[in-house]
Amino acid sequence: MLAAPSMSVDAAAVRHIAKLARIAVSDEEVAALAPELSNILGWIEQLGEVDVAGVEPMTAVIANTLRLREDVVTEGDRQADILANAPVAEHGFFAVPKVIE
Amino acid sequence: MSALTDLGVAAIRDGVKGGDFSAREVAEAFNAAIEAARTLNAFVVETPEYALAAADAADADRAAGALKPLSGVPLGIKDLFCTKGVQTIAGSKILQGYEPVYDSTVSANLLAAGAGMLGKLNMDEFAMGSSNETSAFGPALSPWRRNDGGNVALTPGGSSGGSASAVAARLAPGVTGTDTGGSIRQPAAFTGITGIKPTYGRCSRYGIVAFASSLDQAGPMARDVRDCAILLEAMAGFDPKDSTSLKLDVPKWEANLSNNIKGVRVGIPKEYRIKDVPRDIDTMWDEGIAWLRDAGAQIVQVSLPHTKYALPAYYIIAPAEASSNLARYDGVRYGLRVQPDGGNLGDMYEATRAAGFGAEVKRRIMIGTYVLSAGFYDAYFNQAQKVRALIARDFDNVWSECDLLLTPTAPSAAFGLGEKSADPIAMYLNDVFAVPASLAGLPAISVPAGLDGQGLPLGLQIIGRALDEQGVLNAALAFEERAGFTARAEPWW
After folding, report:
1. H helices within B295-423, ranges in order?
2. Out of A32, B36, B174, B348, which residue is the most buried by the measure of CB atoms under 10 Å away?
3. Does pTM top 0.95 for this prediction?
């Protein structure tokens, strides 16, 4: 039932996607991912045969109106809670490697 | 082991209320059963002291004449629900060590209703999987075995695999699950238990680790329909902290439970008869149709023409939303951080995510990233959202001909560990019957129907209109009474 992939993802495309997704990939992983992603995308492409003329993309699963809350401070003073799970926190902030040389 | 573990949610609640046994006795019995069943790998964190504390509170409340709806009932909580001070890592290495400073609304609702927490349940990493094999904790095992005398380890299904295993093995009378594209219903079917995914918006998503936000819904898994109704009533309700939460009162699903479905029109969608499905599944489906007819339902043949496109649409939409939701795991605010020597911030992100995510999660993040990337958004993501609208329209149309739909839950019985892990698409096909209702946000239940030729449970699915959980539960009750499913896994663990 699987359609032959018409859109194949090559190694360069895998590296590009991995870069966008901020995931480091090894050469072995790239080699394995290229056919896997091609196969999945090939299977997904059967959606192209559906006639969607005049159909609006779904934006809400169940009709609902987006509520707005009052523009007031509802909580705060939770610095310790917010930093509790940080791998590295310093001086009340999340700490990260140097960004600007 | 005490026979108290053979009791379901309603029986425990009523027994505690009636003084047949104490809540503490119940909690002790389940705590002992969990400790004795570690081979199943169903629980990834055990919290016996939490269960006992809630039980003691329930016994005190009984003495004071102030019992709550779930007083004395101990429950297992899927590891996707944030639990204050108790490790919650959603089956992923990238969240290692994470202890939430708050409770999810759904688990908090259950605790506020008097329930106790037995522990956290194993699951596929970030709920991405159908066999529990993608969990960083290793797979949960099904308590079931084939009747061929062998001892092949079977999957309890996924992603709520630990949840299903725990209920089937009598380690908890009820548990929470979540269902994005079948993650409550497929494992329920694989393990001979009952599980319902309510209408999208019934249960708050606040504090549930996000996978695909337009699809994620919490729901209960338990031994029977009544127990599911009781638990869902406690879990559901409006929550201002979730923008998609429905501002509706929670119906009295248990009080209004009725096996009278005379005149209810049950649709049998022809597109769900697919090739290559084991004959036992179709036979069981036919039997289920006969049971509902016997209960007075009117059976009608119907068509949902876009059904075959539901799964590929799902595998665009769910990974797209996941790639966005999982962007938060960057080694800065919680969980794992991997810092390469001399690396900059970008190197840290990439190394952390490479080390923290498992193969299936990476695959889905990359598919999602691809379908949302410049030049492909329209062809993939927008097309999928249009197809999703057509799938929802199919259901809207069919409700003029019927009130409920009856289908198989999954296209096979439970399979062996490792049997499908090499082929992602074969694994995805597990959810072929579950995904359409997810895309349309509809309530759907899986109820055990019987055993197949290998002695393994099969389930059937009942799908209803949006907000008609009552209709779904009632038909499921009439079904359950006729199926008379009493089989259980023989303890070997």
Report:
1. 310-325, 345-356, 359-372, 383-398
2. B174
3. yes
